[in-house]
Every structure is written in structure tokens, then in C-alpha cells.
Automatic annotation (TrEMBL):
Subcellular location(s) per record: Membrane
Topology term for the membrane: Multi-pass membrane protein
Primary subcellular site in the record, as a coarse category: membrane
This protein's UniProt keywords: Membrane, Transmembrane, Transmembrane helix, Transport
Family named by the database record: Belongs to the purine permeases (TC 2.A.7.14) family.
Gene Ontology MF terms in the entry: purine nucleobase transmembrane transporter activity; purine nucleoside transmembrane transporter activity
Name of the featured protein: Probable purine permease
Length: 392
């Protein structure tokens, strides 16, 4: 009996020690998991910060250079459209590097599940061609808008992308439509309406007739809607078709549609006959041939930098957030246009600027609330799991 009792006590001790070890192991796992999560959060914030910098610097510089091209003697709409997508060869070093890295990873993880999630080649080709067509049309409308409007009016009209994108994200990306987002749309609509009224009596620095300015207004508004649709469709394709969250996927989404858009621009340049006047345009450029070439070159470079940041934000956050960050340039470009291009900002345009910034901040606050709620849910979940482990 004593032997049996000793055996029972030993097994009880062993099982108690095992439980303690298992529980301690689970506890260490639980305490270590937030550290890994924190590290992933830091990496995510760093990556998103890089994309935001790319988008802000690229978009503001590209817009100013596009206006400079027209102001100094450039007049080709197809050339201005061409440089918005023609910088894609600059991505080739990154493209081959990350594509090779992605292929090597696929070799190591080449199982049945990865094959099932991989989209068909024909589906990807159709997707890239469709995005290229949409991008070319959108860039052409932006080129007309930038030609027929002064830079401050053009930049404020581009803020309507946020309102359009909120609508497209609601229908295509299941984006929540809260009171703050609705407030943002209303404010941006009011800002656009003020600009429409102001354009009738404004003395424009482009010295173009009223019908041209109205045409530029319509083109910019349509381009903003098309660009918002493009961003929402890119997010939808990442979620439903591509199903990868890698930098190589971002490069693919930037490289192939830009190639298609550039080919369309080349066809348009020759079909319209504008290519015949490019030599005279270069000779008549105010700052000389070198300045003409460098303006177009850096416009192409800055648009590619902006596009990488934009698509990166679509992939890591959402299309609506990407558009919101794009509108951060809103108060910057009109101020720079006054400094460099001597645009006039009257009282109506200043009110439109304030309303647009108010609309932007309204959405930013909504995003802050969503992020705070998501963090609260994340911190609540480990506490529940820890309680379950301790009970077991």
C-alpha cells in the first residue's frame, strides 16, 4: 500500500510539474506573441511611412513639373500623358530582383494550396490590359485639366477623388460609410461647387477663354472619378484575384499597366499628329532643349515614385486611405503654385481650400477611430486566450 501511495504521489508530482511546465510554456508563448506582433506592427508602420513619403513627394513634384511643361512652351497633351506612365523601365532593377526572389520562395513553398490560389495567366493579362486602358484615359483627362486650369484650381478639384473613392469603396470594397466620411464627402462637394462658381468670374493665369476652363473643369472632375475607380478596382483585384501581399505584386501592378498605358500613348501621339510638332516644341521651349528633356524625364520619374507609394498604400491599408494621403498634397500645391507660377488665390478659392482641408481631416479622424477600435480588439483577444490557458 505504501508503495502504491508513493507511486501515486510521484505521478501526481510529475503531472503537476508537467502542467506547470506546460502552463509556463504557454505563458511564455503568450508573452512572446505580443512582441512578435509589435515587431510586425513596427515593420508595417515603417513600410506605410515609406509609401506615404513616396506618394507625397512624387505627386507634388510631378504636378508642379507638369504645370511647368505647359507654362514654358509645351503644348502636347499626348506627351504630357506619355510621361505619366513612361517611367516604368526605371522599375526594371527592382522588378527583376523581387521577381526572382518571389520565384525562389514559390519553389520552396510549391504546394497544392499555393497552386490553387495562384491566378490564371490569362486572367492577369486581361486585368493588366484593362487597368492600362483605364490609366491611359485617366492620364489624358488629367493632362487636359492641367492645360486648361491654373494649378491651384486643378489641385483643389483633384480633392474630389476622396469623395468619389468613398463611394466606390462602399460598393466595391465593403468600406463602412460613417457620418464622418459622409461629412467629408459633403465638404468636398461644397468645395468643388465653390470652384465651379468661381471659375466664371476668375481671371485665370493660363489666359485661356472661359469655354476652355469649363472643359478643363469637366476633364479634371471626370479624371478624379476615373482615378478613384482605378484605386478601388486595384484593391478589389488584390483581394479577389492576386491574393498576395508582396512588394513584387505591387511592382507587377505598376509595371504592366504602365507598359500598356505607354503603348496607348505612343499610338495616340502618332495618330493625333502631335509627334510632328515635338521638334519645334523643344526648340521653342523657354529654358532650352536640356531643360525640356529634363522636365519630361523628372516628371516621368516622380510619377513612378508616386504610383509605387499609391499602390503600396492600397495593398497595405486601403484604396480610400491611399486617396486620403494623396489629398494631403492639397494645401501644399496651391501654395507652391502661388510662389512659382504666380496663381491668384481669392476669397472664394481660399474658402474652398479650407472646406477641402476640413473634409480631409474629417476622414483622417474617422480612420483614427477605426484604428483605435481595432487595437482595442487586438489587446482584448490575448486576455481572453490567457484566461482559457490558465483554466486548462
Amino acid at each position: 500500500m505504501e508503495i502504491v501511495q508513493d507511486l501515486h504521489s510521484q505521478t501526481a508530482t510529475i503531472t503537476t510539474e508537467e502542467i506547470i511546465v506546460n502552463n509556463s510554456h504557454r505563458n511564455t508563448t503568450i508573452t512572446e506573441q505580443p512582441q512578435h506582433q509589435r515587431f510586425r506592427d513596427y515593420r508595417w508602420w515603417f513600410r506605410v511611412s515609406i509609401y506615404i513619403i513616396f506618394l507625397l513627394i512624387g505627386q507634388s513634384a510631378a504636378t508642379l513639373l507638369g504645370r511647368l511643361y505647359y507654362d514654358k512652351g509645351g503644348n502636347s497633351k499626348w506627351m504630357a500623358t506619355f510621361v505619366q506612365s513612361a517611367g516604368f523601365p526605371l522599375l526594371l532593377p527592382l522588378f527583376f530582383n523581387f521577381t526572382a526572389h518571389s520565384k525562389s520562395n514559390n519553389i520552396h513553398t510549391n504546394d497544392a494550396s499555393s497552386r490553387k490560389t495562384r491566378p490564371k495567366f490569362s486572367t492577369l493579362i486581361s486585368l493588366y490590359i484593362a487597368f492600362g486602358l483605364l490609366l491611359a484615359g485617366d492620364n489624358l483627362m488629367y493632362s487636359y485639366g492641367l492645360l486648361y486650369l491654373n494649378l491651384s484650381t486643378y489641385s483643389l478639384l483633384c480633392a474630389t477623388q476622396l469623395a468619389f473613392n468613398a463611394l466606390f469603396s462602399f460598393f466595391l470594397n465593403s468600406q463602412k460609410f460613417t457620418a464622418l466620411i459622409f461629412n467629408s464627402i459633403v465638404l468636398l462637394t461644397m468645395s468643388t461647387s465653390l470652384l465651379a462658381i468661381n471659375s466664371d468670374s476668375e481671371e485665370d493665369s493660363t489666359n485661356l477663354p472661359r469655354d476652355k476652363r469649363v472643359l478643363g473643369f469637366i476633364f479634371t472632375l471626370c479624371a478624379s472619378a476615373a482615378f478613384s475607380l482605378y484605386l478601388s478596382l486595384v484593391q478589389l483585384s488584390f483581394d479577389k484575384v492576386i491574393k498576395k501581399e508582396t512588394f513584387s505584386a505591387i511592382l507587377n501592378m505598376q509595371f504592366y499597366p504602365s507598359f500598356v498605358a505607354t503603348c496607348i500613348c505612343v499610338v495616340g501621339l502618332f495618330a493625333s499628329g502631335e509627334w510632328k510638332s515635338l521638334d519645334e516644341e523643344m526648340k521653342g521651349y523657354e529654358n532650352g532643349k536640356v531643360s525640356y528633356i529634363m522636365t519630361l524625364f523628372w516628371t516621368a520619374v516622380t510619377w513612378q515614385i508616386s504610383s509605387i507609394g499609391m499602390i503600396g498604400l492600397v495593398l497595405d491599408v486601403s484604396s480610400l486611405f491611399s486617396n486620403v494621403i494623396g489629398t494631403v498634397v492639397l494645401p501644399v500645391v496651391p501654395i507652391l503654385s502661388v510662389i512659382f507660377f504666380h496663381d491668384k488665390i481669392n476669397g472664394v478659392k481660399f474658402i474652398a481650400l479650407v472646406l477641402a482641408i476640413w473634409g480631409f481631416l474629417s476622414y483622417i479622424y474617422q480612420h483614427y477611430l477605426d484604428d483605435k477600435k481595432a487595437k482595442a480588439n487586438k489587446t482584448h483577444l490575448p486576455e481572453v486566450s490567457r484566461g482559457e490557458v490558465e483554466i486548462c
